[in-house]
Design a protein that fits this description.
- The chain has helices spanning about 20-25, 45-55, 70-80, 100-110, 140-145, 160-165, 175-185, 205, 210-225, 230-245, and strands at about 5-10, 35-40, 60-65, 85-90, 95, 115-125, 140, 155-160, 190-200.
- The chain is an alpha/beta fold.
- It folds into two domains: about 5-205, Spore Coat Polysaccharide Biosynthesis Protein SpsA, Chain A (Alpha-Beta Complex), CATH 3.90.550.10; about 210-250, no CATH class.
- Strands 1, 2, 3, 4, 5, 6, 7, 8 and 9 form a nine-stranded mixed β-sheet that branches.
- Helix 2 links the parallel strand 2 and strand 3 (about 60-65).
- Helix 9 (about 210-225) packs antiparallel against helix 10.
Length: about 250
């Protein structure tokens, strides 16, 4: 297989880690990819670092938004510009293992399932593995994702020739979950690769998120984005709270 894979990355003041992320993509065993990096109004030297890599690697495409618009618009800009047969996402501080693309493509080819995702390691900002690995389920359905979003943006891999392009809802958080649910309304399930294929870097500010704010936002997602009834929302909220606690324990 030599299909083109489109990679989409939003950046915002990512100078501290973006070089490591770029190198992890350049180290992929599968080489036929295009990378659309959308800068969301960075004020540090993120742009200069990316352009330096781009000058030496024509597969990297840099897009700069005129103003900070949030990750949903940045990712949707990348989706719109993507020309590949397959599409995947990578945040500007995360890292892929060298076989990520190759294994994702092989799994789609073997299983004939057009949406796959992988387990990943979780590190602190220094790439120290002080947290346990997150091992994904072998398959997840639409209702599974409503209970707990086990598909992380850094390992989602989609066959766009089979599924077509869809765009993330223009919401402040949970944009990726909104996109996965759109696809899972049309296919029976997404397939989970058990082997860790990436590193999710957990930053200090993400650890201090107010749980009350997350609960309010999750409720709004159920009611306003997915249009669930009050009783459905209560049912999935209980599952989400319990599974969320288990997911983010060390």
């Amino acid at each position: 297989m030599n299909a083109l894979v489109s990679i989409i990355t939003p950046t915002y003041n990512s100078a501290k880690h973006i070089a490591e992320t770029i190198q992890s993509v350049q180290n992929q065993t599968y080489k036929n990819w295009e990378w659309i990096i959308v800068d969301d109004g960075s004020t540090d030297n993120t742009k200069e670092i990316i352009l330096d890599f781009q000058a030496k690697d024509t597969r990297i495409h840099f897009v700069k938004l005129n103003q900070n618009s949030g990750p949903a618009i940045a990712r949707n800009t990348g989706i719109e510009k993507a020309t590949g047969d397959f599409m995947t996402f990578l945040d500007a501080d995360d890292i892929w293992f060298p076989t990520f693309i190759e294994n994702s493509l092989n799994t789609i080819q073997k299983t004939k399932i057009p949406f796959v995702f992988s387990s990943y390691k979780r590190s602190n900002e220094k790439l120290e593995f002080v947290y346990s690995d997150f091992i994904v389920p072998q398959k997840v359905t639409y209702t599974d994702i409503l209970k707990s979003n086990s598909i992380s943006c850094l390992t989602a891999f989609l066959d766009i020739k089979a599924l077509g392009k869809k765009f993330m809802p223009l919401i402040k958080k949970r944009q990726d979950m909104g996109l996965w649910l759109q696809y899972l309304k049309e296919i029976p399930f997404a397939y989970g690769i058990q082997e860790c294929q990436a590193i999710y870097r957990i930053r200090e500010n993400s650890l201090s998120r107010k749980k009350s704010d997350l609960i309010v936002y999750q409720w709004k997602f159920y009611r306003e984005v997915e249009k669930l009834t009050i009783f459905q929302s209560i049912y999935y909220m209980v599952h989400w709270m319990v599974r969320g606690f288990l997911k983010y324990r060390n």
